[in-house]
């Protein structure tokens, strides 16, 4: 899953990005409103975290452009502006959530998880795919009731495949959701991480099938 942070405060953006990466998200950062409005429409983001006070185009302007283009990506406004009028404006423009700074980081985490679930049409925090169970609230995946030990990238790959179980996920889509803009990606990255996940699923887990020329499919009986 991939998240875009649009934030003028570089230190704040880096801190949030590192926290989200630890939760298995790929993260991109934009600090300029004009470029953020373009970037938001180019990639398959699961969530956009948007400040209001941005150079060139305000956060409200970015949100207006996103919704005007027909994008339904969940948007959380994260800002120091807490006046009721600002909240009303943000929500009326199509924001899904509004969180004022300073904020409790545990509440931020919970809101992120809820918005990502909502955007994928998965209100239930637990996603079941055969013997696999992904508890989004706890951030864990179990296989037949046993915790599955996965590194961050492996976790992200399996999450993408689970949310699209029974459907082919292209290599390009997999890479786009697992890696951020600023991360170096090896040509065989998709094959490498899918191979590692296959090993950890072993004979008891569902099969990840390679669909030649198209991508990967998590088979669920």
TrEMBL record:
Does the entry feature the keyword DNA-binding, yes or no? yes
Q: Which GO terms describe its molecular function?
A: phosphorelay response regulator activity; transcription cis-regulatory region binding
SMART domains attached to this UniProt entry: REC (SM00448), Trans_reg_C (SM00862)
A GO BP term here is:
regulation of DNA-templated transcription
Q: Which residues are in the OmpR/PhoB-type domain?
A: 124-220
Give the keywords, sorted: DNA-binding, Phosphoprotein, Transcription, Transcription regulation
**Signal sequence residues:** none
Q: Does the keyword Ligase apply?
A: no
Q: Which residues carry this modification: 4-aspartylphosphate?
A: 51
Q: Where is the Response regulatory domain?
A: 2-116
The UniProt entry's GO CC annotations, sorted and at most eight, read: cytosol; protein-DNA complex
Name the DNA-binding stretches: 124-220
Q: What is this protein called?
A: DNA-binding response regulator
């Amino acid at each position: 899953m991939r998240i875009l942070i649009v934030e003028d405060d570089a230190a704040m953006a880096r801190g949030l990005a590192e926290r989200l990466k630890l939760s298995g998200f790929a993260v991109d950062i934009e600090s300029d409103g004009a470029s953020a409005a373009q970037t938001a429409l180019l990639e398959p983001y699961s969530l956009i975290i948007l400040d209001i006070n941005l150079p060139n185009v305000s956060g409200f302007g970015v949100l207006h452009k996103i919704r005007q283009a027909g994008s339904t990506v969940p948007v959380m406004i994260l800002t120091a502006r807490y006046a009721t009028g600002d909240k009303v404006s943000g929500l009326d423009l199509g924001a899904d959530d509004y969180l004022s700074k300073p904020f409790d980081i545990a509440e931020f985490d919970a809101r992120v998880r809820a918005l990502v679930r909502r955007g994928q049409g998965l209100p239930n925090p637990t996603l079941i795919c055969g013997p696999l169970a992904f508890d989004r609230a706890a951030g864990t995946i179990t296989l037949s009731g046993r915790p599955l030990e996965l590194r961050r990238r492996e976790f992200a790959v399996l999450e993408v495949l689970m949310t699209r179980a029974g459907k082919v996920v292209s290599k390009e889509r997999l890479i786009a959701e697992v890696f951020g803009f600023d991360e170096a990606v090896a040509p065989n990255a998709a094959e490498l991480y899918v191979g590692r996940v296959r090993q950890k699923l072993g004979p008891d887990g569902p099969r990840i099938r390679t669909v030649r020329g198209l991508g990967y499919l998590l088979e669920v009986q």
